[in-house]
Design brief:
The chain has about 500 residues and is of the alpha+beta class. The protein has 18 helices and 14 strands. The two termini are about 35 Å apart.
Length: about 500
């Protein structure tokens, strides 16, 4: 019987510095959590048993009796749910519910949609807490919730009186442009985020290389100037404004790259066409590697190759969110360490793996990163996510080259795929083995230099390591697209 797998009960087990409060001047915030004392990064703030846990999530199936019976406890908790009259999302939820479902089931669905956390294997379960579920969203959160452990833990230093916030989005979505995040909030939760990142004049994800001030290496950030006016581009370091001509050139290039990335994600496209769109988007991304489009290209497609893509994504995470521990950064560092160890670059692999373990120790509440490394070693043989990951410093020192990153040993990626398409099947069979030599060159070819002074934004980056002319390389990219996209489709989706 399904009820045997369900848990619902109230129970705050531990409170180390949080209070539930409200702000009469901000009724839209409802009841929320505030720090009752200063909290250092990594502090356990709350630990709580769930009100309700639904294995596999509610979905559109008819809810079992045990879930419906939790309605009285959910009413008592008084968690936030918009009224059907004011929320298009609530109206849509009720239209999608099974016909004839009782009012208690409808209430449970509403509460789960607006207040639940992911838990269980692959995050398939939905879990609701009486206190943890009151944490509001922020696009630069200072806390994180573990739905399985029922804990709230700080990921930044928090001052007494600060609101304790979490992210309703995953880390990759926090790197999307502000307008894209607003769409997600509106469609999923029917609200407009009012956090510091979303209300700032500048969008910190629309980062362009190319400040013209002598000696300045800052990024140009897009600043809103009005609902019907194009944004300005202002340097994040020296504060200087880009010229109107440079603004227009960069914004046009951004719009073109966004359209190309969108087309590449269209499931109806032929593989060759998708490969061409990815290559065109990469021309923009390689010049502006901390831009949201470059990070999305790296995260979804690992383009042009796994190693430079992971470096780009990690640099973007730090530029936008700071050195904040998060699961995406941990996973990317672990996988990057594996690649580097396979290439024989053991010192860098060791440093990156230690950084990943230090982050994980904060999220797990461990005093020592070495405990995390020991756990990774113990679990690596059974881990589906990192089946061959060198989990310890000793493993990295002894690591043998291994270029199978879950993309298929016979499928070259990045520049190896381009070479394979041009040089024929012999190059294709050698592509994976050559990848260790070419990846460093491809990585070096992802420039952090400003765009050319002559305004030629549409020109590709110069890749000195390729012996083929650029024009031939673009043609070859179309030929290699079938191999590349099949490899991409095997990657995990974050």
């Amino acid at each position: 019987r399904e009820s045997s797998a369900l848990v619902w009960k109230m129970g705050l087990l531990e409170n180390n510095g949080a209070v539930v409060t409200s702000d009469p001047g901000r009724p839209d915030l409802g009841f929320f959590l505030v720090a009752s004392r200063a909290l250092p990064r990594g502090a356990l703030v709350l630990r709580e048993e769930p009100l309700l846990r639904v294995p596999g999530g509610a979905g559109r199936r008819r809810l079992p009796d045990a879930v419906r019976e939790s309605a009285s406890a959910l009413r008592l908790a008084n968690l936030f749910v918009p009224s059907p009259g004011s929320s298009e999302v609530v109206r849509r939820l009720r239209q999608q519910a099974p016909s004839g479902e009782p009012e208690d089931s409808i209430l449970v669905r509403d509460v789960l949609h607006f207040n639940s956390f992911a838990a269980g294997l692959s995050g398939a379960d939905e879990v609701v807490f009486a206190t943890l579920s009151r944490a509001n969203h922020d696009c630069a959160p200072n806390c994180m919730v573990d739905g399985d452990e029922g804990t709230l833990r700080t990921i930044r230093d928090v001052a007494n009186g600060d609101q304790l916030t979490i992210s309703y989005l995953d880390e990759a979505s926090l790197l999307l442009a502000r307008d894209a995040r607003r769409v997600l909030f509106q469609e999923r939760w029917d609200f407009r985020c009012g956090c510091g990142r979303c209300t700032a004049t500048a969008d910190d994800t629309r980062r362009f290389s190319g400040c013209n001030t002598a000696g300045c290496t800052g990024d140009l950030l897009a600043e809103e100037t009005g609902p019907s006016s194009p944004p300005h581009l202002r340097c994040s370091s020296c504060g200087s404004l880009a010229s109107a001509q440079d603004c227009q050139r960069l914004l046009d290039a951004e719009a073109a790259a966004a359209a190309q990335l969108s087309k590449a994600q269209d499931g109806d496209q032929e593989e060759e066409d998708q490969g061409q769109q990815l290559m065109r988007c990469y021309m923009f991304a390689s010049k502006h590697p901390r831009h949201a489009l470059a990070l999305e290209l790296s995260n979804i497609f690992a383009f042009p190759d796994a190693l430079p893509a992971k470096r780009t994504l990690l640099a973007g995470l730090e530029a936008i969110l700071g050195d904040v521990p998060c699961q995406l950064a941990i996973d990317e560092r672990r996988e990057l360490a594996e690649i580097l160890a396979g290439r024989g670059e053991k010192e860098e692999a060791r440093s990156i793996l230690e950084a990943a373990a230090a982050m994980a120790s904060v999220l797990d509440g461990r005093a020592d990163a070495s405990q995390v490394l020991d756990d990774w070693e113990a679990n690596r043989s059974s881990s589906s996510r990192h089946p061959v990951l060198p989990a310890t410093i000793a493993d990295i020192a002894a690591a043998k080259p291994d270029y199978d990153l879950g993309l298929g040993a016979a499928r070259p990626t990045g520049s190896a795929a381009v070479a394979a398409a041009v040089n024929g099947s012999a190059a294709a069979s050698a592509g994976a083995a050559a990848d260790g030599a070419t990846t460093a060159l491809v990585s070096a070819a992802v420039p952090t230099r400003p765009p050319p002074a002559d305004g030629s934004e549409d020109q590709p980056p110069t890749v000195a390591c390729l012996t083929l002319p650029y024009a031939l390389a673009v043609v070859a990219a179309a030929m290699a697209a079938a191999l590349l996209v099949r490899a991409v489709s095997a990657r995990r989706s974050l």
